[in-house]
Structure formats: structure tokens, C-alpha cells
Write a structure and sequence with these properties.
Length: about 325
């Protein structure tokens, strides 16, 4: 294992023309990982979540597994292998946690499905609504409930599931048992709301709930209500910033609803407020970020941020101090 204690404060500074500087800052709590196939080693970790006990679940993409670490970054267990049978993966791309059941939803990208596991790694059988769960969810196709290279998943506070069906240019919504409810983004009539290669989706419980989508080619954040009605949008990059956004990730902090984006192609994490105002960016912890592609934000004992630093084969955890 390779870990680091609280070793640094990282200051994020935003310069605003004609105004004073402002910023936010983070402590580095720990960093864990190195390249490999063993325990506490990774080969392109792409996403991460934390449960209520501060255990973390890492999508170890090229090892086609989920690796579980405790609150100090020590190995607990793992599951998965390369394949197409239930419980196996082919290039998994994302993970989220059901706030009701504690189940883990894993996007099994090249198998065109979402698999749902309990925290021990067993395939879940019942949804949070008490009904039999469709698991895995999806198969290759373009119909209701089908996927084409899905890249991300989110769950709302009622257990409804939202999937970024990337290859089909849409968001699909399912009930807690996996029954199809709705889709949006494909062939949208309203200007600016048609989705093109949506790479990430996140849920925020502000108000009646909102769904945030990261649209890749034009690097824009689109905000919808939970029924898919367009609310607002903003550019992910300011003028003069990097023009690429690649397979970036969006997540929402659950108290102030700060928007975090792992800006993969620009080696940083960007912060916005819920109205789209830029707050700053985070570029390093134990090491400068290299293609960070996963992020998780929690309010367990303060605002904590986990970054899947893919190119460095590290999971880095930070605590916001301002």
C-alpha cells in the first residue's frame, strides 16, 4: 500500500477581473495506490464512491474489478473479472451508491449494462421499492431499457435510476426495480437540450430534485428536473481554458450543492456553485493529477472529496477547509 497522511493544504484561487481574489482550499487526507493487479494497486481507476462507514469502492477499470478499501485506504475485499457473465465486467466505467439500500450500481460499459451489487459484492435481487430487481439492467440496443456504451449512472433519493446512455445520446430513467420510466435528450425539440455524447450524469436533491448532465463535444453542463425538463446550462470551461472535456465526471455536493467536475483532459477538478458560477480548480494532492476521471463528494464529518486519479493509479482523498 502507498498512503500519505494529512500532508498539504491545496489552495484553489480564482482571479476575477476588477475584483479581489477568492478561493477555496482542501487538506489532503490520504492517497493510496500504485500500478498493478494486487491489493491496493490499480490499473486505470476511473470512479469511486464512499459508504456511510467511509469504506470506498473503486472501479479498477483495466483490472475489471471493484476494489473495496477501508477509511484508511487498506484493502477489504474485491470482486469481478473480465467477462460477460453476471458479476463479470468488460471495461466498467462508473459507480454510484443507492442512498436507500446501500447497493452499488456499476456501469459495465462494453457489456452495455448496469449491474447492481450489495456491499459484499453479491448481485442484488430486490429494489428499494421492495419489488424484484431487474439485474443486470440493460443490453445492447436503442429501445427502451437498452444501452449503447453507457458511461455513468445516478440514483435519486427515492431510488430512481438515471443512466447516461452515451451511444444513444440520451438519459434513461428507471424506477427502483429497474422498470423503464422515461428518456430524454435524443431528438429533443428545444434548442440546446438535445444531448450529444452525454458522458456523465449526477443527481442533486435541492428543491424537488435535479439531474445534471455533462455533454461532451461542446463541454457544457445541462441541468434538468427529474422529469427531464430543461432548467439551465453553462459552459464547463471559461474562455481561454482547455477546449477538451473527454470522459469527464460530474458530481454534486449534498449540502451547498456545489458542482464538482473531474476535468479529465485538463488534469484538474473544477468547482462551480449550483448556478454555474466558477469557484476554482484543484490540480494536485500527493501528486499533480493525471487524467482524473472519477470523483465523489460527501458530507461525512465535513465536506470530503475523493478523486480517482486515473493516470497516476491513485485514489486521493481531500477535506474542504474553506
Amino acid at each position: 500500500m502507498r498512503t500519505a497522511g494529512v500532508v498539504a493544504i491545496v489552495l484553489l484561487v480564482l482571479g476575477i477581473a476588477g475584483a479581489a481574489f477568492s478561493g477555496v482550499s482542501f487538506d489532503l487526507v490520504y492517497a493510496v495506490g500504485e500500478f498493478g493487479i494486487g491489493r491496493e494497486s490499480f490499473d486505470s481507476p476511473v470512479d469511486v464512491v464512499e459508504d456511510r462507514d467511509e469504506n470506498i469502492f473503486v472501479v479498477d477499470r483495466r483490472n475489471n474489478r471493484i476494489q473495496v478499501l477501508d477509511r484508511r485506504g487498506r484493502f477489504v475485499r474485491e470482486w469481478g473479472k473480465r467477462g460477460f457473465s453476471p458479476g463479470a465486467f468488460d471495461v466498467p466505467s462508473a459507480i454510484t451508491i443507492d442512498p436507500i439500500t446501500g447497493n452499488l450500481l456499476v456501469v459495465d460499459r462494453q457489456n452495455h449494462r448496469v449491474q447492481i451489487f450489495d456491499p459484499e459484492g453479491n448481485l442484488a435481487k430486490v429494489g428499494s421499492n421492495g419489488k424484484a430487481l431487474t439485474n443486470p439492467l440493460g443490453r445492447l440496443g436503442s429501445g427502451n431499457g437498452d444501452f449503447n456504451n453507457p458511461m455513468d449512472v445516478a440514483v435519486d433519493k427515492r431510488g430512481n435510476i438515471y443512466v447516461a446512455d452515451t451511444g444513444n445520446n440520451r438519459i434513461q430513467k428507471f424506477d427502483p426495480s429497474g422498470a423503464f420510466l422515461a428518456e430524454w435528450g435524443k431528438f429533443a425539440r428545444r434548442r440546446g437540450t438535445q444531448l450529444n455524447n452525454p458522458v456523465s450524469v449526477a443527481y442533486s436533491d435541492e428543491g424537488f430534485g435535479y439531474v445534471y448532465v455533462l455533454n461532451s463535444p461542446d463541454c457544457r453542463v445541462l441541468k434538468f428536473d427529474i422529469d427531464g425538463n430543461f432548467v439551465k446550462e453553462w459552459p464547463m470551461h471559461r474562455k481561454g481554458d482547455g477546449a477538451l472535456c473527454g470522459p469527464s465526471r460530474i458530481r454534486i455536493e449534498p449540502r451547498r450543492y456545489t458542482v464538482y467536475i473531474a476535468d479529465t483532459d485538463n488534469n484538474r477538478v473544477i468547482l462551480f456553485d449550483k448556478e454555474g458560477e466558477f469557484l476554482g480548480d484543484l490540480r494536485e494532492g500527493k501528486a499533480p493529477f493525471k487524467k482524473p476521471s472519477g470523483i465523489f463528494v460527501t458530507q461525512t464529518f465535513g465536506e470530503n472529496v475523493l478523486v480517482a486519479d486515473t493516470g497516476n493509479n491513485l485514489i486521493q482523498k481531500f477535506r474542504r477547509v474553506r
